[in-house]
Amino acid sequence: MAAIDNVLQRIDANSSDALARLFELLRIRSISTDPAFTGECVKAAEWLAAELNAIGFTASVRETTGHPMVVAHAKAGRTGVPHLLFYGHYDVQPVDPIDLWESDPFDPKLVERETGAKIVGRGAADDKGQLMTFVEACRAFRETGGLPCDVSILFEGEEECGSPSLPAFMAANKDELSADMMLVCDTGMWNKDTPAITTMLRGLYLEEVVVRCADRDLHSGMYGGPARNPIHVLSKIIADLHDAKGRVTLPGFYEGVAELPDEIAEQWRQLPFDEHQFLGDVGLSVPAGEQDRSVLEQIWSRPTCDVNGIVGGYTGKGSKTVLPAEASAKFSFRLVGKQKPDAIAESFQAFVRARLPEDADVEFISHGASPALQLPFGSEALSRARRALQAEWGKEPVMAGSGGSIPIVGAFKRDLKMDALMVGFGLDDDRIHSPNEKYELSSFQKGARSWARILSALSA
Ligand code: BES
Ligand code: MN
Ligand code: MN
C-alpha cells in the first residue's frame, strides 16, 4: 500500500477524536476585536500550542503587542524536502446579533441535515475548523511514519481585526517564518463537491468617518432649519460615492484596475454560476453594484465601496425630536489589481472634506489598509495541488478568485517573497461572520485528507 493511503486511512480512523478536538477549540471564546475576550485568545493560543507539541512539533505561544501568535516547527524524517509554512487564524468574529443564534455559538453542535452533517458554532468555518484540517493531516503523518516535508505553522489571533501586530512580528522573526511557500486554509470551495484553489484576493481599506456640527444635541423645533444636521451631511457624502450605474465616483478610484485577461474571463464564463440562485439564497433577486459587470466578476475582480455601519441621533424606542451633534459611518473599500490603498485613502478623505459645508467638521479613524493579491497561475506547486485535489474529490478544482481579504498573504509575499497556496473547504452558505455559522462535516473530513494529499504531492 502506498504511504499516502496509510495516512488517509489514519485520518479516517481518527475522525471522531478529531471532531472532539475541534469542539474543544470551538468552545474557547477567542473574539479578537473585543478586549473582554483577551484571556480567551490566550487560551486558544495555548490550546493550539499544546496540541501541536503533542504531535511532535516544537510549538510556542509568542507574545505580541496584541493577541499572541502560535509558531511551531517540525522536520521531515529526511533531507532534500521542501519547507512549507501553514497559516491559519484562531480568532473569531463577535457573535452578535446573539438572538438570531439557534444554539449557543460557543457550545458547538453536530447537526444532521438532509444535505449532510454540519458543525455549528462561531469559528466552525472561519477559521478553526479549517486550520484543524491541516493539524489533523499532520497528526496522521506523524502516526504513520512522519511528515513528508519540513513544516512550520503560524496561527494568528488578530486576523479578524486587521492584524495590527503582524508587521512588527514578521519583521522581528523574518528568518524563522521564512519557508519555500505558504499554505493557507481560510478560503472556500466552488461548491459542496467541487474544490477550489484561490489565486486572487481582494485588498481592503477601512475608514471610519465622524461628522460633527453643533457643540451639543439640539431641540429640532427650536433649531431645526438653521442648525446644520451632521446626519444630512454624512448621507449626502454616502449618496455621492456611487453614480447611477453603480460605479464608485472617487477620483482615481479605478486606477490600477485592469480588465480581466481574456483567458481568465473565458474560464469564469465557463463556470456554472447561477446569479439568480446566488442572490436568491440570501433573499435577493436583482444584482446591485456595477451594472455592466457580472456578479462573479464584481465579487472576484472589481473594487467596491460599502458602508458597514452608520449611527447618529436618537435610535431608541419611540421618537425624540433631536438634532444630533454628531453622526458617523464605517466605510470599507475592497481593492483589486494594482489599486494603491494609500492613494485611495487620500482620495476618499479629500472627497469627504470637499463636501463639508460650513460648521461641519470631520474626524477620520483608519482601521488599516492592504492591497489586493494575485498569485502566479502556472507554478509547479499549483499543478501538483490541482492533481492532489482532483484525486480526493474526483473533480478538477476551480481556479477561483475571492471577494474576501486575508491581509497576511500579501504581507508574506511582499516582505518574505513567499507565494501562497490557498485551498479551503468553506461554502458560500457557511454564514461566516453571521449567526449560526457552520462547517460541513464533509469539509472537515475531506479537508484533512486533501491536505495530506497536497503535502505528499508537494514533497514528491
Ligand atoms: N476568511 C476570511 C476571508 C475570506 C472570506 C476568504 C470569504 C474567502 C472567502 C477572513 O477571515 C476575513 O473575514 N477577512 C476579513 C478581513 C479583515 C481585515 C477583517 C474580510 O475579508 O472582511
Ligand atoms: Mn478567515
Ligand atoms: Mn473572517
Topology (SSEs and partners):
Layout: H1 3-13, H2 15-26, H3 38-54, E1 58-62, E2 69-74, E3 83-89, E4 109-113, E5 116-120, H4 128-143, E6 150-156, H5 166-172, H6 174-177, E7 181-184, E8 196-198, E9 200-201, E10 203-212, E11 218-219, H7 230-240, H8 262-270, H9 275-280, H10 295-301, E12 304-312, E13 322-323, E14 326-335, H11 341-354, E15 361-370, E16 373-374, H12 380-393, E17 398-400, H13 407-416, E18 420-423, E19 438-440, H14 441-459
Parallel strand pairs: 3-6, 3-7, 7-18, 8-17
Antiparallel strand pairs: 1-2, 2-6, 4-5, 5-19, 8-18, 9-16, 10-14, 10-15, 11-13, 12-14
The structure holds ligand BES and manganese (II) ion (MN) (2 copies).
Ligand BES binds at residues 126-127, 159-160, 162, 186-188, 204, 402, 404-407.
| CATH class division of the largest domain | Alpha Beta
Structural classification? alpha+beta
Distance between the termini: 16 Å
CATH architecture of the largest domain: 3-Layer(aba) Sandwich
Cα shape: globular
- Mean of residue pLDDT? 96
- Name the bound molecules: ligand BES, manganese (II) ion
- Provide the low-confidence segments as ranges: none
Return Rg in Å: 24 Å
Helix residue percentage: 25-40%
CATH topology of the largest domain: Aminopeptidase
* Major sheet strand order: 1-2-6-3-7-18-8-17
Instruction: Quickly count the domains.
Output: 2
The CATH superfamily of the largest domain turns out to be Zn peptidases
Roughly what fraction of the amino acids lie in strands?
A: 15-25%
Number of helices: 14
Largest sheet: 8 strands, mixed
